[in-house]
From TrEMBL:
Domain Ribosome recycling factor span(s) in chain numbering: 25-187
Example of a GO cellular component annotation carried by this entry: cytosol
Entry's Gene Ontology BP terms: cytoplasmic translational termination
Molecular function as annotated in GO: ribosomal large subunit binding
Name the UniProt record assigns to this protein: Ribosome-recycling factor
Domain of life: Bacteria
Biological role: Responsible for the release of ribosomes from messenger RNA at the termination of protein biosynthesis. May increase the efficiency of translation by recycling ribosomes from one round of translation to another.
Organism field: Fuscibacter oryzae
Alphabetic keyword roster: Cytoplasm, Protein biosynthesis
């Protein structure tokens, strides 16, 4: 490694960006509804509350009392209908049941066709994460080319390219494993 800072490649920044793609993927996977209830499945849903689009978890307490039930205790009774409407229109395929300040979300069994659709959606999310990781790799390789033009030696260039490629390969493998686990969870009856 040379002491000239212009010739060093910031692999920490590249790793952070690749890790960001992985954490975004995990968030997307959490929002996919499998046959089990999870509080995270409501994360993408926002409600027009007091003139601002607000996540449901900021309008009430979200609990999962049993494997096929999510319960939202809405704090402001005036928001119950808005929360219920947002859930109905979210595309999650859940029919909310209002019981006073509580909104119960019974999670129906998934049929085979819906499981296959969700599995494809998960694969799409994974592919997007891989594209993001490859874009970070390309940026890293561009940095290495610029450093070479600025005087980086062949050996250093090869070492940096190998390091960036190893980071990329490790993240692609992690994305594939996460996808495989999510697809198994989706297909589990």
């Amino acid at each position: 490694m040379s002491n000239d800072n212009d010739l060093d490649i910031d692999t920490d920044a590249l790793q952070r960006r690749m890790d960001g793609a992985m954490s975004a993927l995990k968030t997307e996977f959490a929002s996919l509804r499998t046959g089990r209830a999870s509080a995270q499945m409501l994360d993408p849903i926002h409600v027009d509350a007091y003139g601002t689009m607000t996540p449901i978890n900021q309008l009430g307490t979200v609990n999962v009392p049993e494997p096929r039930m999510v319960v939202i205790n809405v704090w402001d009774k005036g928001m119950i209908n808005k929360v219920e409407k947002a859930i109905r229109e979210s595309g999650l395929g859940i029919n909310p049941v209002t019981d006073g300040p509580l909104i119960r979300l019974p999670i129906p069994e998934l049929n085979e066709q819906r499981r296959k659709e969700l599995s494809k959606v998960a694969a799409g999310y994974a592919e997007s994460a891989k594209v993001a990781v490859r874009n970070v790799r390309r940026d890293g390789m561009d940095q290495i080319k610029k450093a070479k033009a600025a005087g980086m030696g062949e050996d250093d260039q090869k070492m940096w390219q190998d390091e960036v490629q190893e980071m990329t390969d490790a993240l692609i493998v992690a994305i594939d494993k996460a996808l495989e686990a999510k697809q198994q969870e989706i297909m589990q009856v």
